[in-house]
Amino acid sequence: MANDESPEQTPDQETEVREGSSGGEERKPSRMGFLLRMRGYFFAGVLVTAPISITIWLTWQFVNFVDSKVERLLPPQWNPETYLPIGVPGIGLVVAILCLVLIGMFAAGYLGRVFMRLSERALNRVPVVRSVYGATKQVFETVLAQRATAFRQVAMIEYPCRGVWSMGFVTGRTMGEVQNRLAREVVTIFIPATPNPTTGFLLFVPREEVRVLDMTVEQGLKMLISGGILTPPSPAEIQAQDEVRSAEDEQEAAERESEQLAPAGTLPAEEAPTGGRAPEASEAPMAVHPVSLKPGFLARLRAYFLAGVLVTAPIAITIWLAWEFISYVDAQVQPLLPPVWNPPFSVPGLGLLIVIVGLTLIGMLTAGLIGRTLNRVYDWLLNSVPVVRSIYGATKQVLEVVLSEKSDAFREVVLFEYPRRGCWALGFITGRTHGQVQELTTDTVINVFLPTTPNPTSGFLLFVPRRDLTVLGMTVEEGIKMVVSGGIVTPADRRPLAEQQSPRIDATAERAPAKLPQPESTPAAEPQSADG
């Protein structure tokens, strides 16, 4: 009867008291709850610390990278770390920003413009350097321009087929020969990959098929990098948040204004000024709002900084790429030189010069009788080794095709519909299709290499019908510039005026897939007629 008179127990208490003789089982639910709470605390700690830690780490890596590149250029008497017992993080970044601002101020003057013209004239005389410098400068000029639309808008297009949508970035309005060839006005769109948005494809999409999103480029990048996990709020949610925030701001402003404009007589007596009377409203101090020159000064500094970036970045990137290439060749060649031929001091470009002279001498030797004989001997030797002969044969065939004067490999830039009808892309012809690939298709197809953006060393090999290709008048170098820049660097249409006014290409209608002939090795299949 004592159990009937006991107070009512909760389910947790009931679980703890039952089976009192078995102490291990009665504490199991409580232990599981403790572990679940610890697990929740752990994930909460990760959620709190991970974003801060990653942000600090990335910032620290960037600052250290700039410091390591800049501090070595500073004289010891200008480096604060020479006089201090500890390091000064960020001193290189501060020096870099100040230098860019000063360079921008110098470039804005007469002497700076003269110096820039002379520098550009010198760089444009070097065969390979002028291409890198010209493309880099055009990209920076377009991106840093105040009215530039490159990478300023996020858009949705139907990709890779109708009914499936992908997110991309508008890099600008298509101009030049690409637009003049098409009947519809197209927009240049960069479709990035996930989670690495630094690679993707360059497409030309009709303007009416581009849906511009009401989100910033930063929000679009976050969504792409996260694979859709981070989704920005909709415009309606943003508007509601803004309305709530503005209402709160108005309420706080009204409260501050009521406190400032309250009558002096309402103050307590002990707070009244000496003299036995309260100050009148006319005697209240006036709020002075001085004209601030800070925004204008900051705007000028920003303009000088961007001008410094625009002046130094193309030259710096060009010199850095050339230096890296020369250093790489020197590092591979100089260790092979005998000590008596290697100078006691470093000579930049010595290895590259030796390679050019060596290749020229080998070419001269190969043109003679002895050279042709040696060529046949080592050709026979390499073809006798089982694995080596495959690598040697493939490499030799590729180089013979690419370097042949009659070869069509990478000699023409084409415009074709990809990945669907009504959407266009740039490609490079690598040759006419032969063998079984051509035999299994009803149309005469061409090998086309579709490069990725901004890295044209990767992409897709496509077999496109000849009738669907439009050969452009731009050079391969200009086509690569356009692909690498994401459509920002657009070559002009240099065709005659009569050709520019010729009928333009319109998006063809959807067609049924062509019926492929059955392979001869399939005995049960019978060839189908053209009528199906």
Task: Describe this protein's structure.
It is globular, with a radius of gyration of 36 Å. With 532 residues, it is of the alpha+beta class. It has a 5-stranded antiparallel sheet, with helices on one face. The chain has helices spanning 2-5, 11-17, 23-26, 28-70, 91-107, 110-123, 127-144, 176-181, 217-225, 235-260, 294-333, 350-366, 369-382, 386-403, 436-439, 476-484, 497-500; strands spanning 153-158, 165-173, 186-192, 200-206, 211-212, 413-417, 424-432, 445-451, 459-465, 470-471. The chain is 48% helix and 11% strand.
Short description:
This protein has 532 residues and is of the alpha+beta class.
- Report the principal-axis shape: globular
Q: Name the helicity range.
A: 40-55%
Low-confidence stretches: 1-25, 265-294, 509-532
Question: What is the helix/strand order?
Answer: HHHHHHHEEHEEEHHHHHHEEHEEEHH
Q: What can be said about the biggest beta sheet?
A: 5 strands, antiparallel
How does the helix and strand content classify structurally?
A: alpha+beta
- Percent range for β-strand residues: 5-15%
For the termini, the CA-CA separation is: 92 Å
